Amino acid sequence: MADKATEQKIIAGSIEDCWAVVADLERYPEWISNMKEVRVISRDSEGRAQEVSFRAAAFGRSTSYTLKYDYSKAPKVLSWVWLAGDITNKLDGKYTFEQSDGGTLVSYELEAELKVPLPGFVKRRAETSIIHTALSELKARVEASAKKK
Asked: Cα(19)–Cα(69) distance, rounded to whole angstroms?
């Protein structure tokens, strides 16, 4: 059974600033601390990464997974679905961006299912950690880029 987690954070930047960072998948290892490698397998008709293979640190080891991205609601939503993975059966999610006082309200939703059964509290703690870290690192990246402008 898949577990779903969501978190939100206000980022001092425009929707376009946030979108530029999350849609540049190949640069994830530069700002996501547990991301080791990103490889684009295919691109859509506009040249955007569509099928992407990732290698990341997870549970004290390295994990690999492949996701397929959907840009149909750009730049308000960037969503993805799981295609394959060594320890996952599902890893679907999305970033949603809404203009807000002080910047952009970014929501990150993740639905994950692991191949190896873990106690519910361990899975929830891992999902919460993944989402919290991703949003904190996204905030740092967007806000640092905005200062350079």
From this structure: 13
Largest CA-CA distance found in the chain, in angstroms, rounded: 46
What type of residue is 30? E
- The DSSP bridge partners found for residue 104 are 11, 99
Range(s) of the domain holding residue 90: 3-148
Number of domains the chain contains: 1
Q: What CATH number should be reported for the domain holding residue 37? A: 3.30.530.20
Backbone angles phi, psi at 34, to 5 degrees: -95, 5
Residue 3: per-residue pLDDT: 73
Q: How far, in Å, CA of 10 to CA of 105, rounded?
A: 4
Q: List the Cα angle 141/75/98 in 5-degree steps.
A: 75
pTM above 0.85, yes or no: yes
